[in-house]
Predict the structure of 2-C-methyl-D-erythritol 4-phosphate cytidylyltransferase.
Amino acid sequence: MSETIDRIIAIIPAAGVGKRMGVTLPKQYLTINHRAILSHTLNAFLSHPNIDKVVVAIGEDDPYFKELPESEHPKLLTTIGGKERADSVLSALKYAEQNNSSDSWVLVHDAARPCITHDDIDKLLDARQEFPQGAILAIPVRDTMKRAGSDGTIDRTVCREQLWHAMTPQMFQLNILMNNLERALSEDVTITDEASAMEWANIQPGLVSGRPDNIKVTHKDDLPLAELYLKNNG
C-alpha cells in the first residue's frame, strides 16, 4: 500500500448523553478504576504506534472533555458532534479530511467501548489486505437466538448460523465512508453503524473476529464487567 493510504485516523464519536444508563452524567465520563471510560478508550488509540491521529466528536456544550488528561495529547483533535451517532461520525470525518488525506484509513470506535486492545486493532489493520473494501470487528453469535412477538413472547427461533455481533472499530477509507454516510443520511436511511452505510451503498465489509471482552458499556451492570476486563488486560 502507498504511504498515503497507510495513514490511520481513529474517529471517536463522543457527543452522546447515554440515556439508557439512567444517569445525568454522559456515560463516557463515568469512571472505571478512577478514570473516565472515554479516557480508557482514547488511551488505547493514542498509545498505538500505527494510529496517526485521533479525532473526537464531542457535544457543543461539553464541560467534561477538557478535564481528561488525554485532551492535551498531541495526536488528538476535537470537533463538534451532532444529535445522533451518525451525525457525529460524519462531522469527525469531514474534520479529518480537512486535516489529512482523503484516502486515509479511518477506524471508527465507540466512546463507551473502553476494553479495546492493541491486538484487536492490529488484527483489523492487517485485514486491509484481505478486505480492501473495509472491515469491522465482530464476534460470531454463540447463543440460541429468539425473535420476540409484539406481546413479549417468543415468535420464533432464529438460526444463528452465519450471524455475528457487530463491534467496533469499523475500518474504511475516509472518503468512501464519508461520501456513503452523507448520501445515506440525506436520503433518511437508518444508519446503525458505519458498516450499514457501506452496505446501503452495495459494499460488503469484511468480518474480523475480535475479542469478546471488547464490550460496550450501555447499562450500569456493564461497569463492573468492564472494570474486570480492563484489570485482566493490564
